[in-house]
Design brief:
The protein is α/β, with parallel strands linked by helices and 149 residues long. It has a single domain, classed as Rossmann fold (3-Layer(aba) Sandwich), CATH 3.40.50. It has 5 helices and 5 strands; from the N terminus they run E-H-E-H-E-H-E-H-E-H. Strands 2-1-3-4-5 form a 5-stranded parallel beta sheet, sandwiched between helices.
Length: 149
Amino acid sequence: MEKKNILLIDDEELILKDIAFLIKKHVKEVHTANNGFEALEVLKKKDIDIIVTDIKMPKLDGIEMMKSIRESGYETPVIVYTSFGNDQIINSILKYSINDFINKPDIDSLVEAILLIQETENAEVIRKEKYEQLLKSLMESIDKSHSKK
């Protein structure tokens, strides 16, 4: 399984350090940001494969950050990891195509969600490669059958 670069966004430094420590063996590289503005800067400079974000943060919260990310054309998978999981917040983030919503402090579910995204994306790459090989093989067979005529 190819490991992915991950961006953790939370305004609580201790949470960032704890999550980074617990997931670093499961991912390629861990980047962190303390708010949505910092996260957007990281996204401009780094190749990020998975985003894990809190909702309630100063300066630019997780909802506005997700809106900005999607409006900029990023389709990066997003996992929301927050203590503020009420129906109103969930409804407001669903339109930004989140991949998972996990309530703090359920770190086991967070790790599972990250691993699932990595496995799913790797499976999609493999399927695409196999499809392209099959298509190439079919085209070669068609070419051979036409050249015999």
